[in-house]
Write a structure and sequence with these properties.
Blueprint: E1 2-6, H1 17-26, E2 31-35, E3 50-53, H2 58-68, H3 72-80, E4 85-88, E5 98-101, E6 104-108, E7 116-119, E8 125-134, E9 139-148, E10 150-153, H4 155-160, E11 163-167, E12 177-178, E13 180-182, E14 185-188, H5 194-197, H6 199-209, H7 220-234
Parallel strand pairs: 1-2, 1-3, 3-4, 4-14, 5-7
Antiparallel strand pairs: 5-6, 7-10, 8-9, 8-11, 11-12, 13-14
Length: 243
């Protein structure tokens, strides 16, 4: 099994590389390829089992969008062909049509999905988050955090939502849909890091996306206790969700 981590030296905000460490602990026999920003992504020319990219600065969004732009048709084909992607935090925005700041165009995204991102750096939106994911085996609660200067808007989220929000902001303030789930491409604004906070989600990814049977995520019992406590705490009546 081969897992590619894109640009870890700049896609590492909010502890998102802990997702990679948790994957390493849970999949000790897997090969991990960490592709630096100066390198050529392996998934463009070779098969990998999972591509991961995490949260970055606003400046890095511009650099990464420009770097990947010549390969957008290849990336679109990889998604259409069912390659597994896990994209967290504002890395999601790279896959939209454009990024705006105060109404001004900052950069083009890859245009793979029908949405644009709008931010205002004078205001940061922070919240704890709970959403529901239909895994095909029942409804799974997914928890985490968001810390954003803005939101994303477009048809992609109504058509291909990853989660239905029950606490916190959706992909924007107007809708409950959150993230994108198309074929085996999963993208979400949630940070946390996502996999560490949600062992049931990692277990599902391992089994359903990576074909790993009979193996639980690392430290599963303790991770589940923390997850169950967090779900109960976040959904407690009267619990504030903005911070």
């Amino acid at each position: 099994m081969r897992i590619e981590v894109l640009f870890p030296e700049i896609c590492n905000l909010y502890g998102e590389l802990a997702n990679v460490r948790y994957l390493r602990e849970s999949l000790p026999d897997a090969e991990f390829v960490e592709t630096p920003f100066t390198g050529q992504p392996v998934f463009l020319t070779e098969d990998v089992d999972l591509v991961y990219m995490g949260t970055m600065t606003e400046q890095a969004q511009v650099l990464i969008s420009e770097k990947l732009m010549p390969y957008r048709d290849v990336i679109r084909n990889r998604i259409d062909d069912g390659m597994n992607f896990l994209i967290t935090g504002n890395a999601l925005e790279v896959f939209g049509k454009r990024i705006l700041e105060d109404g001004k165009h900052i950069c083009d995204g890859l245009g793979i999905f029908d949405f644009e991102s709008r931010r205002d750096k004078r205001k940061r939106y922070n919240c704890i988050y709970v959403g529901e994911f239909d895994s095909g085996e029942g409804i799974m609660k997914v928890v985490g955090y968001k810390s954003l200067f803005g939101f994303a808007y477009g048809n992609a989220f109504k058509e291909h939502a990853f989660l239905n929000t029950t606490l916190g902001y959706g992909i924007n303030k107007e809708i409950s849909e959150e993230g994108i789930y198309v074929n085996n491409f999963i993208a979400t604004y949630i940070t946390g890091p996502l996999l560490v906070l949600n062992p049931p989600l990692l277990e599902w990814i391992m089994r359903e996306k990576l074909g790993v049977e009979g193996r639980k995520p690392a430290f599963y019992d303790d991770a589940m206790k923390a997850y169950e406590y967090r779900v109960e705490e976040y959904t407690r009546p009267g619990k504030g969700w903005e911070y």
